[in-house]
Amino acid sequence: MPKLLEWFAQNARDLPWRRTDDPYCVFVSEIMLQQTQVKTVVPYWERWMRSLPDVGALAKAAPARLHKLWEGLGYYTRVRNMHRAAQLIVDAHGGSFPSRYEDILALPGIGRYTAGAIASIAFNQPKPVLDGNVIRVLTRLFGIDRNPREPRINAHLWCLAEELVTEASTLQPSATGDSAVARLTSRAGPPKASPAAVTPPSPHPVSALNQSLMELGALVCTPRQPRCVDCPVQGLCRARRENRVEQLPGLGVRARPTARRVAAFVLQDGQRFLVRQRPAGVVNAHLWEFPNLDALPDDADLRKTARRALGFSPRSLTHLCTIRHSITRYRITLDAFRVALRSGGKRPAAPGRWLPLTALRRLPFASAHKRILDQLDGV
Fold first, then answer.
1. 81 phi and psi angles, rounded to 5 deg
2. What percent of the chain lies above the pLDDT cut of 90?
3. Distance (Å, rounded) from C-alpha 199 to C-alpha 11?
4. Are 115 and 105 in contact (CB under 8 A)?
5. For the packed helices 23-33 and 77-93, what is the interaxial angle rounded to 10 degrees?
6. Residue-range domain boundaries for the chain
7. What is the CATH architecture assignment of 2-247?
8. Residue 30 catalytic?
9. SS3 readout for the chain
């Protein structure tokens, strides 16, 4: 274990949220990092902290402002849960981020992994973490070939992560040897039952242990072409000894993605464009978009699709751009079209709001529709 901690101290990426143990800063980073890559999160986190530097600022912020700050990160339920969590912290904890693991876990949008990450990183409490990176490290290290999504195997992995972080809590910075990992790898089968940069040696071994497991999975023990020769615990890795690194974790066959075609329509009347706000309870709720509709396989006539989306048949349609993106298991091809309106005619009674570009740029748009909006610069 000390080898892993030493590796982390020397190789950890210089990420802005690692320069502080402020629980609010850790909280924001952990929520943003859910299902989002680090390189994407960094500028969002920095902008967020400039705009909303503490829990009180987040609790008081207007939802539209939060959605705009989050624009492009996706999975917008996260930011709405963050808002609710901040309001609960203000109401129930006097504006101070709770330090008890149970209180952190009770916050909206926070599960076992995120609560463990905040408790261990911000408060150095021996709480385990188990995300995709840690799962990959542990299944390879301990040679676990069953699907980690299976409840029994997942519970076993949580137990391993907990034993490791508990062992870390007993370490002194000068401790040597990998006794905890060696002891655990010898087992077969699940058990029965103030801001500062991280500098070596870490004064907080619990925080460093959990972060080192995540960092090892991100940088070395990667899904494809892992760099085993650079791994600080390679001598203890059962998958490496048995030449099974590429086969683990055994996640089974992934479901094939589903293709979808969407047509979006850009209506312009003078200097104003027609946009709509998505309702609550749907994907990308409360975000703005241009009128659009899934194009059915038999929609050979684009005008019919436009009529179903807009409520009238446009005089002409001009292709504007094609945008390819993904939402969960869907691989979406979105074609956007400019809609020509009759000169001097009455504005169509399509639902939505007619707004100028200056107003549109202040609204939070769904990511694909933000890319359509970007195409309209200079119009």
1. -65, -35
2. 68
3. 11
4. yes
5. 160
6. 2-247, 258-375
7. Orthogonal Bundle (1.10)
8. yes
9. CHHHHHHHHHHCCCCHHHHCCCHHHHHHHHHHHCCCCHHHHHHHHHHHHHHCCCHHHHHHCCHHHHHHHHCCCCCCHHHHHHHHHHHHHHHHHCCCCCCCHHHHHCCCCCCHHHHHHHHHHHHCCCCCCCCHHHHHHHHHHCCCCCCCCCHHHHHHHHHHHHHHHHHHCCCCCCCCCCHHHHHHHCCCCCCCCCCCCCCCCCCCHHHHHHHHHHHHHHHCCCCCCCCHHHCCCHHHCHHHHCCCHHHCCCCCCCCCCEEEEEEEEEEEECCEEEEEECCCCCCCCCCEECCEEECCCCCCCHHHHHHHHHCCCCCEEEEEEEEEEEECCEEEEEEEEEEECCCCCCCCCCCCEEEEHHHHCCCCECHHHHHHHHHCCCC
Q: What is the mean predicted confidence (pLDDT) over 42-59?
A: 97
Question: Out of 30, 163, 215, 289, which one is annotated catalytic?
Answer: 30
Dist CA 190 CA 221 (whole Å): 22
What is the per-residue pLDDT for 354?
94
Residue-wise pLDDT for 242-290, tens only, equals 999 999 998 877 778 889 999 999 999 888 999 999 998 888 889 999 9
Q: Which residues are CB-neighbours of 150 under 8 A, at least 6 positions away? A: none
Whole-model pTM? 0.84
Task: Report residue 229's pLDDT band, with 50, 70 and 90 as the boundaries.
Answer: very high
Check for a shared fold between 2-247 and 258-375. Answer: no
Residue 174 has pLDDT above 60, yes or no: no
Distance separating alpha carbons of residues 367 and 288, to the nearest angstrom = 10
Least-confidence region, from 45-59, 133-147, 171-185: 171-185
Instruction: Give the CATH superfamily of 258-375.
Output: Nucleoside Triphosphate Pyrophosphohydrolase (3.90.79.10)
One-letter amino acid at 230 equals D
Token representation of residue 25: 């800063």
List, for residues 83-97, the tens digit of each pLDDT value.
Answer: 999 999 999 999 999
**pLDDT at residue 321, rounded to an integer:** 93
Neighbours of 358 (CB within 10 A): 8
298-314 residues labelled b (16+ CB within 10 A) or e (exposed):
ebeebeebbeebbeeeb
